[in-house]
Amino acid sequence: MSTVAMTTRAAAPSLAMAEYAALLAALRALPPGGWSAPTDCTGWTVWDVVAHVVGAAEEAARPWVQARHYLPALVKDRRRPLVDKVNDAQLADRRSSTPEELLTELESLAPKAARGRHRLPGLIRRIPLPRSQGCLPGDTMAYLNDVIYTRDIWMHRVDIARATGTPMAESSAEADVVAQVVRDLSRTWTGAPFTLVLSGRVSGKCSIGSTSAPGDGEVGTLTVDAVALCRLLSGRGDETAPIADGLPDGLVARLRDTRVLF
Hints:
By secondary structure, the protein is an alpha+beta fold. The chain folds into 2 domains: 12-172, Up-down Bundle (Four Helix Bundle (Hemerythrin (Met), subunit A)), CATH 1.20.120.450; 175-256, no CATH class. The protein has 10 helices and 4 strands. It has a 4-stranded mixed β-sheet. A hairpin with a 4-residue loop joins strand 1 (194-199) and strand 2. Helix 1 packs antiparallel against helix 5 and helix 7 (141-164) packs across helix 8 (174-188).
């Protein structure tokens, strides 16, 4: 993880399918009442989280559904974030769906969604994403399709495991998902550069921040649990309990205020 490149177009479909498979396995094993458990996503139960993931999969598999969700959201109540309005449309489409129906729909849509995102034409993949939605300069539709959608599934698996008290199974995509979060942290970071050491489900070491300026060497090391860091950067919660070695006062506090796109 010392040098992190963006997930490639070629690798993205298999990573997405690994996360879909892990999510489906978790949902099939939910305890009684698990679907109604409240999650860390404000106002959402496990049912809502899954309906959102299924809705996003349908948008990727069926572009006309994406248009039906996005076009009204672009002009309706512009004070609300676009993503919230699209999420509302995804859930509204499934308001009467049972958990079993959501599972069946996700099983059918997952491979179609992975293929649909992979087949997105190059012209569309190069469209820049709006800064107003928390995107960074250089982020394009390729980044959204190859990185963010798979990250979304992984983080919602964390949400579901926490909400239901069930173990979160590992997937073959997990290391790449976390590495992409770390990559975005480094792209976002404007403070003193430091070495980040991840522990827990995903381990590794990476340089955070720029060291290009003369005398601009790394100032210390921060060790933190990988899932806790991702939850922190997503704005969900702070259980990081970081171990700082040689870092200046305020750097850990600055990290706690930093957010990346989820």
